[in-house]
């Protein structure tokens, strides 16, 4: 199982190196710009509205990656080859899921830390230590939402006849963490528990769908 | 029916919504044989192939590969199964070498064996070493690559859906060579194609899918069971009737006979006639081609 997951990871990484790099460089720059704006007024000033923006960014990146990882392979038929080359079906899904999570986390976190460094050292805006300037709450919210959004994207990309609806469904699903976050009085703990639980549930459903033939239904694009 | 045969299906039925595509299809393909599957578009060939590959679940009946139920998706089943579906299925962003490396790893085939296979059978094929992504290949090149992938590791079972449709003459020859080589190694091969030349050349048995049901042609290839003969002698007709039935009344010493045994060669027939004192001037077989036989099996063809 672990071997199969690693093999999928290897394949996705090589595909990324071959074609998706430029897209993600552009995304990194966009995140870098936004992160610079967010961190420009110091670490403690990460407002709650900005934290909701982190959630949205996570969803957006997961959605774009989901199209590459699942939808395009279903369209070209290479997904069928994946299913019939002797790999465990759950491992295929988990390989793609963890790849998505790590890529999105890297894309969100690295530019944010660079932006924090830019603000701290070049603009000399830091009124506390550099580590203290890193918007840890924002990164935590981003990571939690990524775990959840990746599961949601995997589920929708595999189960829906028309994966174009994944954007709308993802937006709808994003209401869960944002509502919990606001309703709990911006409690990171409650948001983490509820969102991660829902993420695990969605991932379980996606693994179940992987065992059936629904994933091979013709796409209605 | 041999349930432990490499490819086995028993009473397989499958519907999509209200459309019945397969009805009680049974099929056994033994090791070392090549089975040709023909039928009109929409006859259910691809559905049957997908059931055999574990991509679709039969509504009723059972399909097994090497005794393993295809719908259980056992990894060990896929280790012994090579296939080429109705699309190439390559990861377009990777090179062919990377695709093969992935596929070999998934099938637990060592890098050494992969290179041995590529060197032995594909050394003259440029695309194998091409640094280009597979997405830049032509349709024919992709099909050629898919053939290469299907035979990797010499699987015990190989299933092909329209394998020769975009192949050039060299690639076609290579494909036939690989099928023969695989057959010699004891593989059971299922070949679905509209190209009857391919079916006629390669297959030991031929099945025709019609109306969701599979019927097998009694004998593959062209049958040479009807002969035109020009003969002179006494008691020609009684002697000929021992070999078959006359299709038309004799005219100017010309006879048309349908032999009871299609395996009979012209030498057998001439020898028998001459031994009865009949002079044999001309012997011409009148072939019943595979195309006409399949056309009879498929009235709407």
Characterization of the model:
The complex is a heterodimer of chains A (221) and B (301). The model of chain A has no long low-confidence stretch (mean pLDDT 83). Chain A is mainly alpha-helical. Chain B has 301 residues and is of the alpha/beta class. In chain B, 32% of the residues lie in helices and 31% in strands. Chain B has 10 helices and 14 strands. In chain B, the strands form 3 sheets. Chain B has a 6-stranded mixed β-sheet, sandwiched between helices. A 4-stranded antiparallel β-sheet of chain B has the order 2-1-4-5, covered by helices on one side. The radius of gyration of chain B is 24 Å and the shape is elongated. Chain B starts with 6 loop residues before the first strand and ends with a helix. The mean pLDDT of chain B is 85. Chains A and B meet through helix 1 and helix 3 of A and helix 2 and helix 3 of B.
End-to-end distance of chain A: 33 Å
Largest sheet of chain A: none
The proportion of residues in beta strands of chain B is 25-35%
The tally of helices of chain B reads 10
Shape of chain B: elongated
Distance between the termini of chain B: 30 Å
- Low-confidence segments of chain A, given as residue ranges, are none
Largest interface: A-B, 26 and 30 residues
Query: What order do the helices and strands of chain B follow?
Result: EEEHEEHEHHHEHEHEEEHEEHEH
Alpha-beta classification of chain A: mainly alpha
Q: Tell me the fraction of residues in β-strands of chain A, as a range.
A: under 5%
Could you list some keywords that capture this structure?
heterodimer; A: 221 residues; mainly alpha; B: 301 residues; alpha/beta; 32% helix
Q: What's the topology here?
A:
The complex is a heterodimer of chains A (221) and B (301).
Chain A: H1 2-39, H2 48-76, H3 78-83, H4 89-122, H5 130-133, H6 136-159, H7 166-173, H8 175-183, H9 188-210
Helix pairs in contact in A: 1-2, 1-4, 2-4, 2-6, 2-7, 4-6, 4-9, 6-7, 6-9, 8-9
Chain B: E1 7-16, E2 19-29, E3 34-39, H1 45-52, E4 60-65, E5 68-69, H2 75-79, E6 81-84, H3 96-106, H4 111-122, H5 139-150, E7 157-161, H6 169-184, E8 188-192, H7 196-202, E9 205-210, E10 213-216, E11 223-232, H8 236-243, E12 244-251, E13 254-259, H9 266-275, E14 279-288, H10 290-297
Parallel strand pairs in B: 3-8, 3-9, 6-7, 7-8
Antiparallel strand pairs in B: 1-2, 1-4, 4-5, 9-10, 11-13, 11-14, 12-13
